[in-house]
Amino acid sequence: MKAFTSWLLAGAAILPLAAPAVLHAEPFRFHFDHVLGTSLDIVALAPDETTAMMATTAARHEITRLDAILSEWRADSQLSAFNRGELAAQAPEVTAVLNQCEHWRAVTGGAFDCRVGGALQVLREADSSGATLQSARLEQGLASGHVTVDGMAKGYVIDAALAAARRASPNLAGLMIDIGGDLRCWGRSPVQGGWSVGVADAGDADNTRPAQVLRVADRALAMSGRGARDLKVDGCMVSHTLQPVTGQPVSGVRSAAVVAPTAAEADALSTAFMVMAPDRALALAHRLDGVEAYITGSDGVRYVSEGWDTMISPEPKLTRARNDAPGAALVARSLGLDLTYTVPKIDAEPYHAPYVVMWITDESRKLIRTLLVLGVKPKWAPENFIWWRRYGRLNPQVIDSVGRATRLPGRYSVSWDGKDESGAAAPTGKYIVHIEASREKGGHTYQTVELDLSRAGTTALPAKDEMGAVAIKFGPGV
């Protein structure tokens, strides 16, 4: 076991500073794909575009710098060197993150613990190879002392990027940095009442709008939960969040969303609340200044801290209707489908995640609904030329409404509520699901499947070139 006390060196604190008195400021929005394995969105409230660009550039440089130090996926990172026992070259950023990990380990009573890195690696290898998991290997991994900062690093990077942006552009009036749904807001918001941030429900499909919209000021939001990052071990899908004592995947909590003063704090607590019993998690949230939590148990029951509802925006919820009872299932749809798809692992250097489009037409190939567009930069939309030539170029604004960042290899889901582009219910009958994928410096794939939605059923498409396997459940009431 490594001597973790060697981490405990003084770390620099990020002190809150008041926003400057900028009389005129407007929001400038920036989006980037392939950042820390996900997407980066920045909203800078600034007097001019030059000021906003300076802040954005500084934030991106800081993210890139810290990724080279803290990445668990790069063999040349300082964190990887730490796990190999090469302590002599340990970077101060590694020490700072591990110090914060130890702090939150103490605060959460051990529910947050970065020492599960070895056990997590064993589970990832089992997921990748399909090999049967042996308890002895899991125990060996847990005893290795290898660390994972998966539940802390993104928040730490967001905080550091926000600080770097503010140093580079002192005239900023407000700023939001969002990396893959974890975010931090500071200063003046584009609209009165605070920054609007979305909170998705655990297990929601990839094209589902947020279940709640919060209004926050000078706060951060992080969410941990089951879903796209689950691992397939011994034929079962399991959480990537582990119990620190046993190394086993957690099972009692489906998701935990946390609002806190800093992104690192929200990140650590959302991970810890996946491990803790919900009542203990809420009790801890109530003891911590500026912390609110929204936890969903594996049985669908919701647990909410005292101040959570005060942050909910007065705007109507964006998802389809739900029953009011805690843990209630989705209201049954008259017609629809649920589709699970896989972004495959492709051995390519450099690797670029594929651009994917999914849409539904009737039998005559008249467009009913575009379900998903992965890759929000309009210049890449024509790469999926079948969808673009037939439908996309006639309605380019659809990218703004359903577009999502590209996805790394893994399993994801998409749903259709049985409505067409105008929001009207589609009639029962036969439809065609279209799936098209293309990859920069890669190939192109197009597949279709005909479905009779007058009856319930399931079907599947095999993996092909740039697209992994697809499973579809369809029919009335889906």
Output the structural class: alpha+beta
Distance between the termini: 50 Å
Mean pLDDT: 84
Superfamily at the CATH H level of the largest domain?
Answer: ApbE-like domains
Please estimate the helix content: 10-25%
Unreliable residue stretches: 1-17, 316-333
Q: How many extended strands?
A: 21
CATH architecture call of the largest domain: Roll
Q: State the strand order across the main sheet.
A: 1-2-3-4-7-10-11-12
CATH third-tier fold name of the largest domain: T-fold
Q: Beta fraction of the residues?
A: 25-35%
- Report the radius of gyration as a whole number of Å: 23 Å
Number of alpha- plus pi-helical segments:
10
> Main beta sheet, described?
8 strands, antiparallel
Q: How many discrete structural domains?
A: 2
Principal-axis shape equals: globular
* The top level CATH class name of the largest domain: Alpha Beta
Structure summarized in a few sentences:
By secondary structure, this protein is α+β, with helices and mostly antiparallel strands. The chain is built from ten helices and 21 strands. The chain is about 25% helix and about 30% strand.
Structure report:
The chain folds into 2 domains: 17-311, ApbE-like domains (T-fold, Roll); 336-475, Immunoglobulin-like. The chain has 10 helices and 21 strands. It has helices spanning 49-70, 78-83, 92-107, 117-129, 135-143, 153-168, 263-275, 278-287, 385-390, 398-402; strands spanning 26-35, 38-46, 174-179, 182-187, 195-199, 212-216, 220-225, 231-233, 236-238, 253-260, 292-297, 302-304, 336-343, 355-362, 367-374, 403-404, 410-416, 430-438, 444-452, 457-461, 470-475. Strands 1-2-3-4-7-10-11-12 form an 8-stranded antiparallel sheet, with helices on one face. Strands 16-15-14-18-19 form a 5-stranded mixed sheet. Helix 4 (117-129) packs antiparallel against helix 5 (135-143) and helix 6 (153-168) packs antiparallel against helix 7. The chain is globular, with a radius of gyration of 23 Å. The termini are far apart.
